[in-house]
């Protein structure tokens, strides 16, 4: 399944879940279930934003964007985090009203069953988005999936709380649960914004990936004397790698190019659509710091 199809699927699932949760709220009048429905409204809006961002990110590089449009997905993830926080503030407002005037719930069992059906759909789709999103290296899809997981956790907590309210008659639990939902998604929204901003700020790849890059450069650089000043960054599914490679001063251009090709092919075989820039230097450009492998 392609990234675009998954994004379209998220939009369809979002509308279906929103409809079910709105129905559950209308059946019960529960503030907690209303908060769940408000969060699903965010799901629909962010799924639409993710679809647009993914379509933009898929565009090839052009004169105005020579490095491609991959960062568009990070903008989508940041927007999703912001909208999650806005939804949390709306939920807190509704929870406060419910806390001041607790209400007896209508048809709570039937409403819970409808809401749990929506939760099951969300849980299944979240698993699909996270696993496929990581495989396709799509920050927008992974962010969407993680948000749905938060939604699932909130919905399960709400269901348990409403059952307790029914059993004990403590209807004050309903707005208290809504507050729990708001705090939970505030935390997830702030975390999502932080992760997405790291991509927009050209943060380096993970330590594990960086170790693998260094190992490949060292293994495949037979004929070179040194490599130094390695820099990496990631933008959606694409990894950017650049470094300086020192060769003997008397080596031919053809031989130097062969070494570069070997390193590039090995890096692309490991990291897929990697963008690699290698600056070739003569031996007097060797450095003592920032060295990947030393002079032999």
Automatic annotation (TrEMBL):
| Matches recorded under NCBIfam families | CDF (TIGR01297)
Where does the signal peptide begin and end? none
Q: Which GO terms describe its biological process?
A: intracellular zinc ion homeostasis
Q: Which residues form the Cation efflux protein cytoplasmic domain?
A: 206-283
Query: Where are the bilayer-spanning segments?
Result: 40-58, 74-92, 112-131, 152-170
Name where it's found. Answer: Membrane
Q: Which UniProt keywords apply?
A: Membrane, Transmembrane, Transmembrane helix, Transport
User: In this protein, which residues make up the domain named Cation efflux protein transmembrane?
Assistant: 10-201
What name does the UniProt record give this protein?
Cation efflux transporter family protein
Q: Which domain of life is it from?
A: Bacteria
State the family named in the UniProt similarity comment for this chain: Belongs to the cation diffusion facilitator (CDF) transporter (TC 2.A.4) family.
Stated membrane topology is: Multi-pass membrane protein
List the PANTHER family hit by this protein, alphabetically: MITOCHONDRIAL METAL TRANSPORTER 1-RELATED (PTHR43840:SF15)
Do you know which Pfam families this protein is assigned to?
Answer: Cation_efflux, ZT_dimer
In the record, what terms sit under GO molecular function? Answer: cadmium ion transmembrane transporter activity; ferrous iron transmembrane transporter activity; zinc efflux antiporter activity
The principal location of this protein is membrane
An example Gene Ontology CC term for this record: plasma membrane
């Amino acid at each position: 399944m392609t990234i675009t199809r998954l994004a379209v699927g998220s939009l369809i699932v979002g509308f279906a879940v929103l409809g079910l949760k709105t129905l559950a709220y209308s059946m019960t009048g529960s503030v907690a279930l209303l908060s769940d429905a408000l969060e699903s409204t965010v799901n629909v809006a962010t799924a639409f934003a993710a679809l647009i961002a993914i379509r933009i990110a898929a565009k090839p590089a052009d004169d105005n964007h020579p490095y491609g449009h991959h960062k568009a997905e990070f903008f989508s993830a940041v927007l999703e985090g912001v909208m999650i926080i806005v939804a949390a503030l709306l939920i807190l407002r509704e929870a406060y009203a419910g806390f001041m005037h607790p209400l007896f719930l209508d048809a709570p069992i039937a409403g819970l069953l409808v809401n749990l059906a929506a939760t099951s759909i969300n849980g299944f789709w979240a698993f699909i988005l996270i696993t496929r999103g990581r495989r396709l290296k799509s920050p927008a899809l992974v962010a969407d999936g993680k948000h749905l997981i938060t939604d699932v956790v909130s919905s399960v907590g709400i269901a348990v709380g409403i059952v307790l309210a029914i059993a004990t008659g403590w209807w004050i639990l309903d707005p208290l649960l809504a507050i729990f939902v708001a705090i939970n998604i505030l935390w997830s929204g702030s975390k999502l914004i932080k992760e997405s901003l790291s991509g927009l700020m050209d943060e380096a790849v993970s330590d594990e990936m960086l170790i693998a890059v260094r190992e490949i450069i060292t293994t495949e650089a037979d004929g070179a004397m040194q490599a130094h000043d390695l820099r990496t960054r990631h933008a959606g599914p694409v990894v950017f790698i650049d470094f300086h490679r020192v060769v003997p001063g008397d080596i031919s251009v053809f031989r130097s190019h062969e070494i570069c090709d070997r390193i590039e092919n090995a890096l692309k075989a490991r990291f897929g659509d990697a963008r690699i820039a290698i600056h070739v230097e003569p031996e007097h450009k060797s450095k003592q710091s920032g060295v990947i492998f030393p002079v032999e």
